[in-house]
Design a protein that fits this description.
Distance between the termini: 156 Å
Largest sheet: 7 strands, mixed
Shape: globular
CATH topology of the largest domain: OB fold (Dihydrolipoamide Acetyltransferase, E2P)
Structural class: alpha+beta
Number of strands: 25
CATH class of the largest domain: Mainly Beta
Helix content: 10-25%
CATH architecture of the largest domain: Beta Barrel
Strand content: 25-35%
Radius of gyration: 38 Å
Length: 470
């Protein structure tokens, strides 16, 4: 009996194993079978974790850091009220200040913690945009306070400008705002020791917010105030100071057309940093016509694109190869009219300054100063002189020349300084040739453009009306 029971158990186990093997074989040949859970009143727990839905990324918000800090008039820093004398660029402005601050009444300010793109030498993207922002902002100011970073005024590396914070208020907002921080928060400057100063935490936060918002410099977009062509964007100052660097190079610059003579125009522009006008002769030759010539009308402010070349006959540099494509008026290689209604500066110039003075101009990047003859810096710009006595006159006598009848008038100032005046051929209201007899021995005032001839600088006069007999 016991043996029988054992055999029955073995048979049962074998039968059960056979059924399980058959079931497994069937499931391998067909679709995967998932056993149904056993019926129960208790919910079955699962060990799998559902994938969370990512939270939406919030876009950064613009924060007005410039208004978040307050001007503390009781702090230990040095402060003074000021008004704008000259706008230079985005981070440099010249201010009128009390004599107690500067004997000359002038403070050249370099804004702390920021460095805006260049617009006074080689013009960079967003340079003009930053300069316009500073000018537009301070033009609306009803009050300006300049503040040092410490208890005394500090000079920058050039030794000629003071490192300062600029505070301003307007009729709409009587609370003072910090312009340095405002420029940073609008993405118009890169860092310049931004953290290492009195308002460093705010300055860095403003800069980071501008980067997060991708504003202006950090936008990755083109600057609407910058020309994206093949020419190097310069100022006339940069071109006049370094013409040999750009010899044979296509350049672009802006200025006012002051005179037109002998297939050339003279173009000049003011530089607020040095307080001087810089100019260049632009030769347009006989290939330019129509709209191109109209753009170069005297009194127009223009953008000139051409090649800088050394003019062997005159011993000076000039711009040539200017053009205008009628079918592509917005072509960055075209001449462009910016505005009209301007006049030449005709800077009143002392003869001794013109003949003898030198000017030292500091390179912002290196802090090194270079010496230039005053007359060289004034080359191709308009000047005026008064109280000159005519000592002698040489008249060109060559019937086959277009200069037949032109005069070189040698003059002397009251202090003995000698200045030469070169005229074109003059005709009076009756169309009669004006001769040397009209000016011999007279005391005169003159207006003209500075030119270089035969190793010296002189004033070229293009109209009889620009010589006044006293």
């Amino acid at each position: 009996m016991r043996i029988l029971r054992i055999m029955k158990k073995k048979i049962f186990l074998l039968t059960t194993l056979s059924i399980l093997l058959s079931f497994t074989a069937c499931t391998k040949q067909g679709a995967e079978v998932t056993p149904a859970p056993a019926a129960t009143d208790t919910p079955i727990e699962t060990t799998s974790t559902p994938t969370p839905t990512p939270a939406p990324t919030e876009a950064p918000e613009f924060i007005d850091f410039a208004g978040s800090i307050k001007l503390d008039m009781s702090s230990e820093t040095v402060k003074t009220e000021a008004t704008v004398r000259t706008y230079v660029d985005g981070d440099t402005v010249h201010f009128n200040v009390p004599a107690s601050v500067s004997d000359t009444g002038l403070l050249k300010a370099r804004f702390i913690a920021i460095n805006t793109p260049e617009s006074t030498g080689k013009v960079e993207e967003y340079g003009k945009t930053a300069a316009k922002f500073t000018k537009d902002t301070l033009s609306k100011a009803t009050g300006i306070i300049i503040e040092s970073d410490t208890s005394e005024w500090s000079l920058d590396s050039t030794g000629g400008r003071y490192l300062v914070w600029i505070w301003y208020k307007t009729a709409e907002d009587p609370e003072y705002r910090n312009l340095n921080i405002e420029i940073l928060q609008n993405g118009l400057a890169i860092a310049s020791s931004s953290a290492n100063n009195r308002y460093g935490t705010t300055a860095v936060a403003a800069l980071n917010n501008a980067k997060a918002l991708k504003l202006n410099i950090y936008s990755g977009q083109k600057d609407p105030n910058f020309y994206y062509g093949d020419a190097l964007e310069l100022t006339l100052k940069e071109l006049r100071l370094n013409p040999e660097i750009y010899n044979g190079v296509q350049v672009a610059f802006e200025g006012v057309v002051t005179m037109n003579h002998d297939s050339s125009v003279y173009v000049e522009d003011y530089d607020g940093e040095t307080g001087l006008y810089y100019g260049m002769s632009v030769y347009y030759g006989y290939a330019l016509s129509g709209t191109g010539l109209q753009i170069l009308t005297v009194g127009n402010r223009v953008r000139v694109v051409g090649t800088c070349q050394y003019y062997e006959a005159g011993g000076t540099y000039q711009i040539s190869g200017v053009s205008y494509r009628e079918m592509k008026p917005s072509d960055p290689s075209n001449l462009q009219k910016i505005s009209d209604g301007h006049t030449g500066a005709f800077t009143l110039t002392d003869p001794a300054t013109f003949a003898n003075d030198v000017v030292y101009i500091t390179d912002e990047a290196t802090g090194n100063a270079t010496e230039y003859a005053y007359a060289y810096l004034a080359l191709d710009t308009t000047v005026s002189m008064k109280d000159l006595t005519v000592k002698s006159i040489y008249t060109t006598s060559n019937p086959s020349s277009s200069s037949n009848g032109a005069m070189t008038i040698s003059c002397e100032a009251p202090d003995g300084t000698k200045v030469n005046i070169r005229t074109v051929v003059f005709y009076d209201e009756n169309h009669d040739l004006v001769t040397s007899e009209k000016y011999e021995g007279k005391n005169i005032d003159v207006r003209g453009v500075v030119e270089y001839f035969d190793g010296s600088y002189q004033i070229k006069v293009l109209s009889e009306k620009d010589i006044t007999i006293n």
